[in-house]
């Protein structure tokens, strides 16, 4: 299976940056494989770093939209029945659903930094009919730093780009902590602002 995925990515390379977008649009191809490989192409001089990051971020945004649409229009019964064709297991759907129930719409952003939840969090967002523009913005903003990290380490590791996912994984917990602090600060600020406005009336 892994070799098939690598062959697909190599095939899409001929389409340059658009190929990167396409590779990430297909959700069954892990970003953890695509992006470090793109970093290796940057290392070889076949692509510009920042254009590759932009293409990766766009692809990392359009891909989740397909799962969002499945959740929005199909709902859980359709996903359970046909999810296997998208390499989606029912227990994975349940895990993402539980995460959404616990943390709400903000998981469209925070969930991108959580292994095991990152890909499938789009499904409960769609099932909850979350605003598509808000979902897209949250996803894009979250995917930018992740894409940058994966491509950067893929580039730095060169021929050993396969190790990039493990290296990025070491940074994931600190990144998640920073993300939670930022998100928490925003919520506190909004809450205090709303309370002050109410008290002034």
From TrEMBL:
It is found in: Cell membrane. The chain crosses the membrane at residues 20-43, 49-74, 135-153, 173-192. Pfam families: VTT_dom. GO terms for cellular component: plasma membrane. It comes from the Bacteria. Keywords: Cell membrane, Membrane, Transmembrane, Transmembrane helix. The keyword Oxidoreductase does not apply. It is a multi-pass membrane protein. Residues 29-154 form the VTT domain. Its main location: membrane. InterPro entries: DedA_domain, VTT_dom. Belongs to the DedA family. This is DedA family protein. It comes from Bacillus mycoides. The lineage of its organism: Bacteria, Bacillati, Bacillota, Bacilli, Bacillales.
């Amino acid at each position: 299976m892994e070799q098939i995925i690598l062959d697909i990515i190599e095939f899409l390379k001929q389409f340059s940056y658009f190929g990167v977008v396409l590779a990430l649009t297909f959700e069954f191809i892990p970003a953890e494989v695509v992006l470090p490989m793109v970093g290796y192409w940057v290392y070889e001089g076949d692509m510009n770093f920042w254009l590759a990051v932009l293409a990766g971020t766009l692809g990392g945004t359009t891909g989740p939209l397909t799962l969002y649409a499945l959740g929005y229009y199909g709902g859980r019964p359709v996903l359970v029945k046909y999810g296997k064709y998208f390499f989606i297991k029912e227990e994975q759907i349940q895990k993402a659903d539980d995460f959404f129930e616990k943390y709400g719409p903000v998981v469209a952003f925070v969930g991108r930094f959580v292994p095991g939840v990152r890909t499938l969090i789009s499904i409960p967002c769609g099932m909850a009919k979350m605003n598509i523009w808000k979902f897209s913005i949250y996803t894009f903003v979250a995917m930018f730093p992740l894409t940058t990290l994966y491509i950067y380490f893929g580039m730095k590791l060169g021929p050993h780009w396969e190790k990039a996912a493990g290296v990025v994984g070491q940074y994931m917990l600190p990144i998640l902590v920073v993300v939670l602090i930022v998100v928490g600060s925003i919520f506190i600020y909004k809450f205090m602002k709303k309370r002050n406005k109410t008290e002034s009336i």
